[in-house]
Amino acid sequence: MADGIPIEITGLSKHFGAVTAVDDLSFTVEPGRVTGFLGPNGAGKTTTLRVLLGLVRASSGTATFGGTPYHALPRPLETVGAALDANFHPGRTARNHLRVYATAAGLPSARVPVVLEQVGLAEFAERRVGGYSLGMRQRLALAYTLLGDPGVFVLDEPINGLDPEGIRWIRVFLQTLAREGRTVLVSSHLLSEVQQSVDEVVIISRGRLVKRGTLASLELDSAPRTIVDSPDRTALATALDSAGLEYDAGRSGFIVDEPDPGRVGHAAFVGGVELSALHRLKSGLEESFLSLVGEAPDESPGDASNGSPGDDPAEAPAAAPPVDEAPAGEEDAR
Ligand SMILES: Nc1ncnc2c1ncn2[C@@H]1O[C@H](COP(=O)(O)OP(=O)(O)OP(=O)(O)O)[C@@H](O)[C@H]1O
Hints:
- The chain is α/β, with parallel strands linked by helices.
- The chain folds into two domains: 7-219, P-loop containing nucleotide triphosphate hydrolases (Rossmann fold), CATH 3.40.50.300; 225-281, Alpha-Beta Plaits (2-Layer Sandwich), CATH 3.30.70.100.
- It is built from ten helices and 13 strands.
- Strand 1 (7-16) and strand 2 (19-29) form a beta hairpin.
- Adenosine-5'-triphosphate binds at residues 16, 19, 21, 39, 41-47, 189, 331, 333.
- Residues 293-334 are annotated as: Disordered.
- One of its GO terms (molecular function) is ATP binding.
């Protein structure tokens, strides 16, 4: 096994014409842990990974593996296992796919059955990939990343499309790689999807870094708030203003920056306002994540840690190999 090497993103920007996909982004991903690379759709995750893997040129800044850009790695497949962009020939079997990539990279074909076994696809090795489920394709993409037994893994949305058993499996798989001292970077637009699998998070929004730290530190960022509503919202707003309480208007009432519903209820009482709802908004990772990336938290009580509004996992792209075929700069709009 190759050593885990840090992934180093420094002052990285990428513009596609007038669109700034990545904006002065800097962070490091250390070996020995699983790092979640998170942000809503369009935040710039895939673009960052494509620059890192030499598929797109940076407008400025650098993205390297311990100081070496991907294209300068002497044996890339034995250094970095990357799953990005689905690209399987439907008529080929899994075994043949992997054989082709192993041969191209000068790796022994004996690695093929080993990696198929590792991802639980050994019994489907002779089946054409066109008949694979999304979950099986995800596993095949991971088998590809394992071919060179690398020390670094860069995986774009690898959990998307997996069933609950597949999600449990990949959690163990990723954690095992990290415990072996490898560097593991996993992107997702859903915190809830990866929160059981990651130790650290790098969160971006609109191409910029908004949070870097442990999963636990993200939880600490989330202060509980109070939901309050009234048949007379104008009077309620006046009462909250008079009490000096800050609030946002939500679908089911005002979300008040005050953890104690008792204080909010008192403010309404003092203002002579009838209430139709008063409860604490449960704090949680998801609420913290959504407030960091600038999306409105779900204000329904007790439901803040489940799911994310507007996300349909079936719509996101699948992660898959290969990464070493497209020429650099191909994706540039100009
Ligand atoms: N080749 C391209 N040409 C023009 N604009 C692009 C190109 N690739 C990405 N973009 C734009 O850059 C921004 C970031 O996109 P990117 O795919 O990196 O985000 P993402 O965080 O990976 O989102 P998702 O989770 O939806 O994949 C978006 O506004 C996107 O439309």
